[in-house]
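Sorry to interrupt, but I need a hand with the structure work. Could you write out one complete protein record for me, on any chain you like? Just paste the record in under my message, thanks.

. . .
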Amino acid sequence: MVVEAATSEADAPGPRKDKDARETRLHNNGAGSPKPTWRAVTLSFIMGTKVHGLKFVFSPDKSKLRRAIWIVAFCLCVSLLCTWSWNRISYLMSYPAVSKIYMVWAPNMSFPAVTFCNQNVFRVSSLTKEDLYHSGYWMDLTYPNRTVMERSKSILRDQHKQELLSLLDFDGYAPPPDRAANTTEMMGRLGHQLEEMLLECRFRGESCTHRNFSTIYTRYGKCYTFNSGLDGNPLLTTLKGGTGNGLEIMLDIQQDEYLPVWGETDETSYEAGVKVQLHTQSEPPFLHQLGFGVAPGFQTFVSSQEQRVAYDRLGLLHATLQYLPPPWGDCKSTPIDSEYFSTYSITACRIDCETRYLLENCNCRMVHMPGTSTVCTPEQYKDCADPALDFLVEKDNDYCVCQTPCNMTRYGKELSMVKIPSKASAKYLAKKFNKTEQYIGENILVMDIFFEALNYEKIEQKKAYEIAGLLGDIGGQMGLFIGASVLTILEIFDYLYEVFKDKVLGYFIRKKRPQRCQSDNLSTCDTLRSHSDSLGFTPNMLPRHPTLGNFEEFAC
């Protein structure tokens, strides 16, 4: 009866039940609401995540077969996603690059520097006994003791060079004691003089003279540069393309002044004509390797287009090239480390390297090399400088390694030529220059250099794949294979944070929490027992609950 009364009282609604509910809530709040465990967080993440397939893999409502199918499909999609993502990352790490070509039209264009050299280094008529005394060994005419080679004598007799033979007679001769061999002075004096070589000159239809050219030395000796920007000459531009809008010069190469070839040396030439190079004003000429030949008896058209690309009647191509530095490319983006040049170019790098090589091996430099070091004497040219430089160019490929600059301008060339003089003009030209018709045919050349059009080709190297492309590709594959996005990644990080908080931070919190003593536990249980007694329940029994022993086990 007591239990029934108590039970009915407990079941009946009223103020007593509301009061008990409030007490229960206060008791729970005082004890602290339970926090979700990492298992609960994991379950919540799986069932609520936007990653397709996860909730079907772990769903208890699905049959084992369907869950197995979902597991296979999910793993396959994740594998494809990882494979494709790694492929894209590997592609990014290979630093791919692409080249793009633009054609740019301009109202005017800067004309390139034009450097040319006669193939012959020394004029035979300008040689003196002193010159041959110091440089006969260099020219392969004499032995080191200045005894004339019989081979050289026989060749000179066959060519009726009696004056040269007489200069080679050094019996009783001694040079002035205060005059040592000066290679620079000798090359400048014995080289072909532009005032004598230049017969006609026009730029954009206006006359020009030898004063519009600057003197420069190369391995061909004394050379000349048009539009160098030096010696007070302004840089020239052209406003139109085609012949007549560039440089047109007529030269006399003076074959009668060529040294007889009596041996094979670096200073003797089998060819007749001039060597020409088109280059920017900031780039030194490198004619012996990069120049092209123009022969006498022809008018040569050099058509160029600036890549930035230009054509002249010699055929000129000007191109502006922009390359990428490492790791996308192998061009040089840093300034040149040189005491001789301020602007980096392949030719500047090569000349700088060759100069240092000769200074290390011969303790002198050639005339065309920059710097203030001692210039090699003719004997040093013969015994050390020429052989060392030939070895460096032909055999030692590791000493001078010059990278391509990241930004450069070059001139492509298209050459064409016609015969000059024609039969109709041979007599006129012979009379005009007071030469024979044979001399005109063997010595006169015309060179016409012009832009084909006022445009240039710009070749630019760009990165083919960057971080933005990588993120786009991986994001697209995530959406395709598993339906994920950037926010899904944030969900995963949020889940990992909750697990970390429960497993790691919870461990330290529980470790620091003070332990309750046994008396506290007993007092709590005693309170529960006294409370049950006050309600009139039988010992160890609560309304609609297991025995008090089980409740005590749960509560205490």
In short: The chain has a mean pLDDT of 78. Residues 64-93 form the longest helix (30 residues).
